[in-house]
Amino acid sequence: MDIIVNSWNELNDELFKDTFNPSISRFRSNFAYRGLNKSSYKLENGIIRMGKPYPNMEKNLIKQFKKYAHDRVVERDTEWHWLSIAQHHGLPTRLLDWTYSPFIALHFATSSMADFGHDSAVWKVNFAEVHELLQEEHKQKLNALGSQIFSADVLADTIRDIDVLSSKHSSNFDIAVFFEPPAIDDRIVNQFAYFSALSDPYLAMDDWLNKQYVSGKVTISRIIIPSGLKWEVRDKLDQSNINERVLMPGLDGLCQWLQRHYKPV
């Protein structure tokens, strides 16, 4: 599963490996990408990172967010819509951020100057194969949509809310779903972003991927970027206009980009 690359060309080969669809003779990827500034970091959601849970912690967070954010959120009223907005604005949730773009994942793997002395990583997970593990009724919704990934609305029609998703959890089996959030703002759009959610909110995604009922059925790789390669990757991403100024529109993103771009090596 771990692949250590030693050059920019090797890195690109691994990022785009297995993305060609011979049935249409086009490159059409079914991979989710997530970049981590340290390769040792786990795929943990915000709920896990809060620490030891207590009863109804997740529900209380969502309830209070809906209460105080209601006058700012009026488009839809599904729980997946609320969760998307909450996650986007920094609330700890069971959602985990992913992107369709391997280069955007690379950005988040090389964005922290404080971690340039550590190897980083890009996780690559085939979400279409993840959804093949779902029950037939759930897969039928995707087939009707003509897609390999849920929209927030179709997910709400399929698995109504986190209570229903949590009901799929058992001591020896959990499911995962990937879904596209509504295009809330330019940051969501520019980051080509979507989310995953597990039926057990306290299970790290990498631990789920290593479960016996998942392993071997889902194509997974963790591409390790050695610390000595990170400056080259970072500079080539900047030259390709993959940076904070674009991915986090506004003065905050602009200042983050300028601070990093002009930092002496």
| Strand runs, count | 10
Query: Strand content of the residues, in percent?
Result: 15-25%
Structural class: alpha+beta
The geometry reads as globular
Continuous helix count: 14
How would you write the strand order of the largest sheet?
A: 1-10-6-4
Could you tell me how far the N terminus lies from the C terminus, measured between alpha carbons in angstroms? 32 Å
Overall domain count: 1
Brief summary:
This protein has 265 residues and is α+β, with helices and mostly antiparallel strands. The chain has helices spanning 8-16, 46-49, 57-69, 79-88, 102-109, 127-131, 136-145, 152-158, 162-166, 186-190, 205-209, 230-239, 244-247, 251-261; strands at residues 2-4, 20-21, 26-27, 31-36, 96-99, 120-126, 150-151, 176-180, 193-198, 220-225. The chain has one domain (2-261).
Structure description:
The chain is an alpha+beta fold. The protein is built from 14 helices and ten strands. The model has no long low-confidence stretch (mean pLDDT 91). The radius of gyration is 19 Å and the shape is globular. The chain has one domain. A hairpin with a 4-residue loop joins strand 2 and strand 3 (26-27). The two termini are 32 Å apart. It has helices spanning 8-16, 46-49, 57-69, 79-88, 102-109, 127-131, 136-145, 152-158, 162-166, 186-190, 205-209, 230-239, 244-247, 251-261, and strands spanning 2-4, 20-21, 26-27, 31-36, 96-99, 120-126, 150-151, 176-180, 193-198, 220-225. A four-stranded mixed β-sheet has the order 1-10-6-4.
List keywords for this structure.
about 260 residues, alpha+beta, four-stranded mixed beta sheet, 10 strands, globular
